[in-house]
């Protein structure tokens, strides 16, 4: 069955909002209706109401781009400086990857597109890490609340596994992307390990970790603490347990469970 | 009746005001309106504040992205979560916009106009009935501002809205500012427009500020409500002859909470003055 006229009109509107060539659209807004095989009357309607139709382009693009400007100020500063921000946004919009009706999902969709497309990463190898780091604290701050698993205890032991809080994220970058600013958006190239977590009051915090601590926090989720520490050449468990108790008090670790 | 809790002028619950509202029980706001998309599936400090307020105070719910006139399959998981959220808030109804917001599984995050055609009426009525069947409370549809008609029309906007409301047998969230803005942009008399509409279906009003950009006026929700729109609200309430709740929307250039409370109080006085006249007329 051929697509209905209503659907083709909606596709024409989406094309008007997302397609690249603004000058051509301004010259002839009817082209999007023509491409959908719509009637001459529908093409005329787009053409005769050009100003109103272009208002939709402006409003919808503003809705889609504002959350990116808010979430990625450093990335934007970098790309504006290189005169490529608009090209990046256009490539993102044309990829049509915003599927969710939740406004808060627009920025993650951008990050996913950046990862999948590799856009700009030949020129700026740190671009994906930068975007990820800019979003990290917000994702952690807004992570859906959930109850911790049952049967956890507060004091770690050598045979225990550690259980991170559901919102906590351990990330490793090859650049110090958490140090950049809009004025200085180029990160130093050095291995960087971070823990983003949420306090009991619901505020996000970022903490830089040593490589050994980052490895311990990742690997001790699936292997006993004593064994993992030993494999990392950390024979003295006393300071490790002190550190883990501190992370527990801060809210980054949900608790410890006996490995079976 | 549950609806008796909802009279006067309420406010949209916005992130910028969660902190003061959560700490202030005697705020005088008779009810809040919340957007489920901003609450369902969220977490963290602001989410907890929002939930505490929604559990404490009367709430109406107003959605943004269900795309009632669209073609994409319903997001069944979200609609299930939405249903649970509606029951939790105790809202007597849930409202969505009479528009489409996405196509071919791409969300455009804008309230886009439907064609004013018989085909679009049939399609939208069918979709609205499907949606209503999945919700635990009655559905209202809101009239939107539009800046261009989508394709060649075979009816006027008023006839399109009336046909969908009647065909789907749902209530109307009447946005008087949207009527006013459309009247400015398309050159008609908003009172004449309203007089031909099925006002018996109105369960709630929206009111907001707008802004002119050259020859076009845009429903920005970013400025104070101007007197002619307040007068249109009063005219509509008098015409209805019953106290439906009015919601003041403010989504851009959001002022401090006390400034918004002062604007709400101004609208509440206008609301009460009209209802006094309505009661005197009925006495």
List keywords for this structure.
heterodimer; A: mainly alpha; Outer Surface Protein A, domain 3; 12 helices; 5 strands; B: 283 residues; alpha/beta; 8-stranded parallel β-barrel; two-stranded antiparallel ribbon; 41% helix
Report on the architecture of this protein.
The complex is a heterodimer of chains A (260) and B (283). Chain A is mainly alpha-helical and 260 residues long. Helix content of chain A is 51%, strand content 11%. Chain A contains 12 helices and 5 strands. Chain A has helices at 5-18, 22-27, 31-35, 40-48, 50-71, 73-81, 85-95, 106-117, 127-141, 211-219, 225-231, 237-250, and strands at 160-164, 169-173, 192-198, 204-209, 253-258. In chain A, a hairpin with a 5-residue loop joins strand 3 and strand 4 (204-209). Chain B has 283 residues and is of the alpha/beta class. Chain B has one domain (2-282): Divalent-metal-dependent TIM barrel enzymes (TIM Barrel, Alpha-Beta Barrel), CATH 3.20.20.150. Chain B is 41% helix and 18% strand. Chain B has helices at 18-22, 45-56, 76-89, 118-134, 157-168, 176-186, 190-195, 227-240, 257-282, and strands spanning 9-12, 32-34, 59-62, 94-97, 100-103, 106-112, 139-142, 171-175, 202-207, 211-213, 216-218, 246-248. In chain B, the strands form 3 sheets. An 8-stranded parallel barrel of chain B has the order 1-2-3-4-7-8-9-12, surrounded by 4 helices. Chain B has a two-stranded antiparallel sheet with strand order 5-6. In chain B, strand 7, helix 5 and strand 8 form a beta-alpha-beta unit. Chain B is globular and about 50 Å long. The two termini of chain B are 22 Å apart. Classes of the chains: A mainly alpha (260), B alpha/beta (283). At the A-B interface, helix 1, helix 4 and helix 5 of A face helix 2, strand 5, strand 6 and helix 4 of B.
Short recap of the structure:
Chain A is mostly helical. Chain A contains twelve helices and five strands.
């Amino acid at each position: 069955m051929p697509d209905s006229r209503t659907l083709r009109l909606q596709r024409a509107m989406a094309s008007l909002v997302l397609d690249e060539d603004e000058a051509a659209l301004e010259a002839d807004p009817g082209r999007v209706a023509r491409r959908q095989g719509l009637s001459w009357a529908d093409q005329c309607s787009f053409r005769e109401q050009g100003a109103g139709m272009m208002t939709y382009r402006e409003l919808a693009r503003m809705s889609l781009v504002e959350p990116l400007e808010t979430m990625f100020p450093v990335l934007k500063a970098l790309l504006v400086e290189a005169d490529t921000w608009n090209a990046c946004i256009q490539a993102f919009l044309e990829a049509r990857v915003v599927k969710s009706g939740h406004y808060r999902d627009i920025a993650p969709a951008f990050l996913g597109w950046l990862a999948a497309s590799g856009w700009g990463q030949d020129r700026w190898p740190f671009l994906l890490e930068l975007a990820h780091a800019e979003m990290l604290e917000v994702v952690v701050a807004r992570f859906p609340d959930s109850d911790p698993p049952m049967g956890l205890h507060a004091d770690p032991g050598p045979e225990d596994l550690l259980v991170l809080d559901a919102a906590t994220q351990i990330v490793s970058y090859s650049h110090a992307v958490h140090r950049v600013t809009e004025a200085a958006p180029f990160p130093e190239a050095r291995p960087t390990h971070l823990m983003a977590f949420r306090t009991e009051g619901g505020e996000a915090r970022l903490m830089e970790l040593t490589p050994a601590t980052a490895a311990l926090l990742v690997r001790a989720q699936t292997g006993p603490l004593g064994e993992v520490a030993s494999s990392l050449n950390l024979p003295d468990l006393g300071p490790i347990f002190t550190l883990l108790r501190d992370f527990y008090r801060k809210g980054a670790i949900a608790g410890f469970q006996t490995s079976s | 009746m549950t609806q008796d809790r909802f009279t006067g002028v309420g406010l949209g619950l916005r992130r910028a005001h969660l902190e003061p509202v959560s700490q202030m029980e005697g705020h005088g706001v008779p009810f809040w309106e919340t957007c489920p998309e901003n609450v369902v599936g969220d977490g963290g400090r602001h989410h907890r504040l929002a939930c505490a307020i929604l559990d404490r105070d009367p709430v109406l719910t107003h959605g943004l992205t269900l795309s009632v006139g669209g073609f994409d399959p319903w997001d069944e998981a979200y609609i299930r979560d939405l249903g649970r959220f509606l029951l939790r808030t105790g809202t007597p109804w849930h409202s969505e916009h009479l528009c489409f917001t996405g196509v071919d599984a791409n969300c455009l995050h804008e309230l886009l106009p439907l064609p004013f055609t018989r085909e679009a009426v049939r399609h939208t009525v069918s979709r609205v009935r499907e949606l209503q069947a999945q919700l635990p409370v009655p559905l209202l549809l809101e009239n939107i501002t539009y800046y261009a008609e989508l394709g060649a029309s075979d009816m006027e906007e008023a006839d399109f809205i009336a046909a969908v409301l009647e065909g789907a047998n749902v209530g109307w969230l009447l946005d008087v500012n949207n009527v006013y803005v459309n009247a400015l942009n398309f050159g008609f008399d908003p009172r004449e427009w309203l007089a031909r509409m099925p006002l018996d279906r109105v369960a709630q009003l929206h009111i907001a500020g707008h802004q002119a950009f050259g020859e076009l006026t845009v429903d920005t929700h970013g400025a104070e409500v101007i007197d002619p729109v307040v007068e249109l609200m009063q005219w509509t309430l008098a015409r209805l002859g019953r106290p439906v709740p009015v919601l003041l929307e403010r989504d851009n250039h959001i002022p401090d909470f006390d400034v918004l409370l002062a604007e709400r109080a101004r609208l509440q006085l206008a609301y009460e003055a009209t209802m006094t006249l309505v009661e005197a007329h009925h006495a």
